[in-house]
Predict the structure.
Amino acid sequence: MKFGTKLIHNGNDIDQNTGALSIPIYQTSTYHQADIDNMGKYDYSRSGNPTREALENTIAQLEGGCRGFAFSSGMAATSSVLATFSSGDHIIICEDVYGGTYRVTSRLFNRFNIEFTYIDAADVNNITKNIKSNTKAIFLETPSNPLLKITDLRSAIEIAKKHDLKVIVDNTFMSPYLQRPLELGADVVIHSATKFIGGHSDVVGGLVAVRDEQLAEEIYFVQNGFGAILGPQDCWLLLRGLKTLKVRVDQCQKTASKLAEWLNNRPEVSKVYYPLLSGHPGRQIHLSQADGGGAVLSFKTHDVESAKNFLKRLKNCAVAVSLGGVETIVSYPVKMSHASVPKEERERLGVTDTLIRVSVGLEEFEDMVEDFSQALGD
């Protein structure tokens, strides 16, 4: 079955009790038990809810996993996966990871004696160089946020398997439509479902898909124990958003590719970051493991004043945190997604105060170019 069809028909699209073509919102906290000696499938909605179960089963199918999990945010999903590790464990993590992930790994989980080493994962040799006797996992994000750096997932996974390490991939930028790391051998995939999966800037949520049943049980233990679950209303919104994922991403990335080329020829722009641009580092690797360039790009102006003036002058785009909505969202990473990363570290990574990130929406390309032209100073 083609992916676009699977989004609509995946076994979680029709309510088995009524035949409804939209899974009902089971807005309940608890469930009557007709036989106390033989408890039913559901007992308390922190532990299980039919609407959440439909979403969790859907993401598992779309990513090619054995089981899925829905959390109250992308960071709840990431934190819950990291909570499966123990004191004394060491995790290798890509250095240009999302700012929220950097924050919890550098300032929260380190309190529990979980050690993290940040590396440039665009060169997989850095993984091998940093493996220690207590290394348990590799945490990757490709394309990375916000510089769209590419990691060779197949090579990273091959290294991990040789050393019995788990591979965790934040797949938010690509969504399961464009990239499915579990099919390449990764163990865990994480999504901020707030982004492309929800797709309408109206819900906050996180999703996880797991390849191995034993690891799935460990994540479920954390999910049920911590209780950072996604409520049924928000689960329903994500189920609805998923149905249009392909058509939205198809159009958004078509415009993003054209916009990246246009920006690349503008004198006001010093650098453009987009996986499909000729000369983008890792372009061929990306094309070998993903089915498109995605809808997110970044660019740099020549100076800070130009970057801030651009943000002030925009008329038909939102200047905001987040991405993946039907509207174009323009972000300023040093003040938004990566504000929690120390300035010296940001600048070392290339996340400077001249960098602007763009999540391309469904507006017409011609209107977007007109707006960007005047914002750049035409």
Notes: The CA atoms of residues 148 and 273 lie 6 Å apart. The two ends are 48 Å apart (CA to CA). The chain has 15 helices and twelve strands. The first helix runs from residue 3 to 8.
